[in-house]
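chain below, 271 aa
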Amino acid sequence: MRNGNEHFVTCGQMKILERRADEDGLSYYQMMENAGTAAALAIMERIGSGFPPAAVAEAPSGIAAMSVKHERRHQALIFCGKGNNGGDGFVVARKMSESGFCVHVILVDGQPVTEDSVTNFRLLENMPVQVTDMTENERVLMYMRVWPDIIVDAIYGTGFHGSLSGNALRAAIYMNKFKIGESAESCADIQPARSAPADAPRPVMFSLDIPSGLGGDIVDEQEVDVNSVRADCTITFHARKPVHLQKFAARYCGDIIVADIGIDEERLWSV
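prediction:
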């Protein structure tokens, strides 16, 4: 569908496209792999990782670019839900770790429950990725000792409805506090000042598909949870969703990148 010159699909249409793609040979697992890989490439390009522009342009096929190592080990903090959005986050964690990042995954709602997210979570087991479960210690964010360069929000995707609560609300508040200023000093109430370099800028925040707390089909600002994550950049998959086109969403989505995950929409609608 198009709104002016802006291509978008509703959440319902996206589910249909994913189902048809799976039936056509592009598995749900491969779509998750493509989404996480493309997101990791976009994040590293955004922060100036030194990837050749061609490698990023080829995502998700440019997976070989992940072997490039960073001169400085950036700290990445990735908040993952227990559904498929969290699964996308696990792929991002794996790809960024392979590229030399120090990666810390926070399980917001506990262990993953969908098949593909479980598979991708298990792939992290033998990697140098730290994993913390908020369901085991809901106060864990109060004791974080590392100042992240990058924060990735992979808690809830476009299918989310209602208001944030529990650990998801705690995580969103934690992430949003970084938006109050540009330096470590201005965020001293979040983490011990000694954990951050004096001149450290605030982390760059990314949301996968949609900032957690928004609904993909929302077009009325009154339906928005004011505690929704406020990202610097949202990496959405295949196409924008209706909420991405709303003026009020800009304060939550930041810049929007549309990542190709291998779906041939034009052909699949004719199947």
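The domain at 2-63+73-269 is CATH 3.40.50.10260 (Rossmann fold). Helices lie at 11-23, 28-46, 53-57, 84-98, 115-122, 166-177, 250-253, 265-269.
thats it, cya
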